[in-house]
Amino acid sequence: MSALLQLFRSSSAFYGGNAAFIEDLYERYLKDPESIDLAWRRRFDAIHAEAANEVPHGPVRENFERLASESRTRAQARSVQRLEPAAAERQAAVLRLINTYRYRGHQMADLDPLKLRQTPKVADLAPSYHNLEDSDLDQIFHTGSLYAPDRMPLKDILALLQRIYCGPVGSEYMHITTTAEKRWVQKRLEGYQARPELEPADRRWLLTLLTAAEGLEKYLHTKYVGQKRFSLEGAEALIPMLDELIQRCGRKGGKEIVIGMAHRGRLNVLVNILGKPPQEIFAEFEGKVPMNPRQLAGDVKYHLGFASDVETPGGIVHLALGFNPSHLEIINPVIEGSVRARQRRRGDRTGEQVLPVLIHGDAAFAGQGVVAETLQLSQTRSYGTGGTVHIVINNQIGFTTSNPLDTRSTLYCTDVAKMVQAPVFHVNGDDPEAVIFVTRMALDYRNQFGKDVVIDLVCYRRLGHNEADEPAVTQPMMYKKIRERPTARAIYADRLIDDGVLTRDDAVRMIEEYRGAIEQGVVVARPVLCGLEKSYRADWHRCHGNDWRAAADTTIPREQLAGQAERMLRLPEDFELHSRVAKIWAERRKMAQGDQLANWGFAENLAYATLLDAGFPVRLSGQDAARGTFFHRHAKVHCQQTGREHTPLQHLRSDADAPQGPFVAIDSILSEAAVLGYEYGFATAEPNALTVWEAQFGDFANGAQVVIDQFITSAGTKWGLDCGLTMLLPHGLEGQGAEHSSARMERFLQLCAEHNIQVCVPTTPAQMFHLLRRQMLRDFRRPLVVMTPKSLLRHRLAVSSLEELADGGFQVVIPETDPIDPAGVERVVFCSGKVYYDLIEARHARGLTNVAIIRIEQLYPFPKDAFLAAIARYQDTEEVIWCQEEPQNQGAWDQIKHRFHHLIEQGKQPYYVGRSASAAPAVGHRSVHVAQQEQLVDEALTGRINPKMNRRIPPQQPIDEPVAED
Questions:
Q1: Are 258 and 340 spatial neighbours (Cβ–Cβ below 8 Å)?
Q2: Of 200, 293, 329, 557, whose CB count within 10 A is highest?
Q3: Which domains does the chain have, with CATH numbers?
Q4: Is the pLDDT of residue 19 over 70?
């Protein structure tokens, strides 16, 4: 027999009578391929083609096992048919019992290190439930599809099932509807009996990692007493799990791993996995960290990210740990977006090169909605990342004051993952070898099927929620057991000593060596590689040191613009548009030729076309982004005869031309938090792509407020992160009720400081065109928040010429555009947004020439110079008014009025004209809305004030410091 077959026969847990038959055929094939049947010869040819230079643990072994299983199943079926009825019934009962263990064995698995809860009795796991008696235990039965010898005594079948499904690994996978996936998991679980193949050296390294995990926490606990660090103690197995994940990922061709996690264990991961120098951690504890000039505020040590490069058997793997605020799971979509951008940059369409890893808490995984939202993104076309490895650090209690009965309504904290048919592998955190087994299986499943997978690391908190917490106050019984229990490292060290893998002196020496390394402050993780050429990384350096006034030439030659407009309107042959879309297309053709003024949808699409033509990628997403909520964009069109989809902006150039930038328009899932977080993550990893998220209505952004507060507006000042994300938020009070009227610009303006974001309210298509181009063409990247219109999309006055698109630029302030003599102006009205058109139409209707109207198109950073230039024309004007349609406590006024007081001349005071303060964004009756709108327009233009309206703002004291951000 060949050495290949000897190795297979000795190592395969599947060997049985049919395997011998397959082996005999294979021996004959090796000697003379023509001596066996053509069908078998083709199978062995295929196996060799797949498995060149492989040992039986590769495709050869897998194919042998598959062929043997198929043959065995057929033979068993024939055998069962020959059984007597009673025997056949017992045989069927055994097969049902096997299947029941696959479904429900996890409920009796040995998962809890603390043994806090009594193992439940699952009735249908008992042989008697299936009418099998004690006398049947010694009887031999066919094992069916169980990866085992094809005939075994029932007692041995039971023992095998209990080792596989009721040991330290509890597996949930039978909810998966795809048979190939279920059979894959069965094969891995049953073939290896839920245990890894570890050499003595591997086991010693496993203890080394546990020693590091425990050693760091003990050192910090004694040196920095009482300081928060969110210790990993009780879940030390996370460190060998991550190490195995990284090394195996690299072995299988992975190039990058992006990790998202909350607080618990973060410092341990930073030091023992990513290789952050311990002295940097110590300096953070001691408050001696020099302030990075780009991190104006900084952040606590257990929120910070880090990046490094490590060696693996397959080459270098880049590791990145994302910055994360205290909102726990909100990091999930941010990491996924970052991964998608990295995959795009590498041309990694299947996710083989870049792996997302998300580390969760048990209560947070079950309780926070963004987890479910992110899972729903996982298999969609434009958000998938080839599968995510989820690791749940399951303390069995969440925050230590909780009762698990109050933290969820499901059996497991991981049950939410079943909605995307992700397999869940529960594992006892005090059995590190079982942890290694599920880690390998989880990564291999992800790589094989491109889907999410969950590892539920069942452990405990040796300390409280943080080091100042006393958990025994609310959990006395749990913490009595914890105080009595040795650590996972001690348990495993004793196990290795008993197995003769090392001596007790060796185990003690590991502790001493790690302690010595920590005290010296040297890197204690696997060697971190330095000085590498990192061509795969995004380059942000050109954007550093600039501000919003950085030069941006957004002009474009008129002929070039017309050509791009024509190309973006081309359609395939025999492509029939919907009649309403066909009308829009006909109008756009006139706009492209200069025969009709450009509207909003045309100008916006043309802005994308010009950026794509210049090579910039454009990514546009939102719940109705492709068509546009207001039927205005039509970035994708559909053939009415065939249903075929066409995206014109993807076809601006012919195949013979140089490639354009890629364009994608995504109709997202009905989520704000996950989708906006995803797009933010994408934008932070891709400085040269225009990344746009559009809310269906502006106030939908409320559902993503955590992303806005913790990332978009503050990440720059906390962590020094740049981001060029663009948010389009439809805004405007139009008598449709309180909802969907306001994008809550006041909330964004309240968050403005230190040039962190840009808030703009463009009022013409040309302004939108140049604003989008400015976002990419200048060397400055900050999030751009745009209050986009609704009714203005088709307003007869809200139009622009091709010349304005070609030759203009974004105006932060638009001065008076009518030919009004400044000497005759008695009142200057400032405004932003849609109310301008109400004011201008009323002024034209009344023939007024004594009122100038100035639009502030960029509310932040406040354009001081442009503001002063616009008002300087009206030196003799005494009245300066701010007019807005939003209630006084909303909109822009409360956030910008100090600018007016500071910038206008002494002796003049600004007036507020608009709606009175209100708890709701808008009234619910259109008739009331119209009356209010008429009143505020009348008041702004003629001074006829409604006495019920709060019109006059008392003068304020001059602000003490200059407006530095201007």
A1: no
A2: 329
A3: 3-168 (1.10.287.1150), 200-520 (3.40.50.970), 558-807 (3.40.50.12470), 813-942 (3.40.50.11610)
A4: no
Q: Which helix (H) or strand (E) holds 788?
A: strand 784-788
Q: Helix or strand or coil: residue 561?
A: helix
Q: Residue 599 and residue 765: Cα distance in Å, rounded?
A: 6
Are the C-beta atoms of residues 391 and 385 closer than 8 Å to each other?
no
Question: DSSP alpha helices (H): ranges in 462-618?
Answer: 476-484, 488-498, 504-520, 558-567, 579-592, 600-613
Rounded to whole angstroms, the Cα distance separating 472 from 400 reads 9
The per-residue DSSP string of 58-88 comes to SHHHHHHHHHHHHHHHHHHHHHHHTS-HHHH
Give yes or no for residue 261 having a pLDDT over 90: yes
CA distances from 112 to 40, 116, 397, 425, 483 (A): 48, 7, 12, 14, 16
State the Cα–Cα distance between residues 558 and 572, nearest whole angstrom: 26
In this predicted structure, the answer to whether residue 843 has a pLDDT above a threshold of 90 is yes
Which amino acid does the sequence have at 340?
R
Both structure tokens of 493: 């060290």
CA angle 651, 657, 662 (to 5 degrees): 45
Tally of helices (H runs) and strands (E runs) in the chain: 32, 24
What are residue 860's phi and psi, to 5 degrees? -155, 140
Asked if 681 and 341 touch (Cβ cutoff 8 Å), the reply is: yes
Nearest one of 102, 165, 90, 95 to 134, comparing CA atoms: 90
In this model, does residue 80 exceed pLDDT 60?
no
Strands 858-860 and 726-730: unpaired
d(CA 137, CA 193): 21
The predicted-structure confidence for 164-218, as pLDDT tens digits, reads as follows 999 999 999 999 999 999 999 999 999 999 888 899 999 999 999 999 999 999 9
Sign of the dihedral defined by the CA atoms of residues 857, 863, 864, 869, in that order: negative
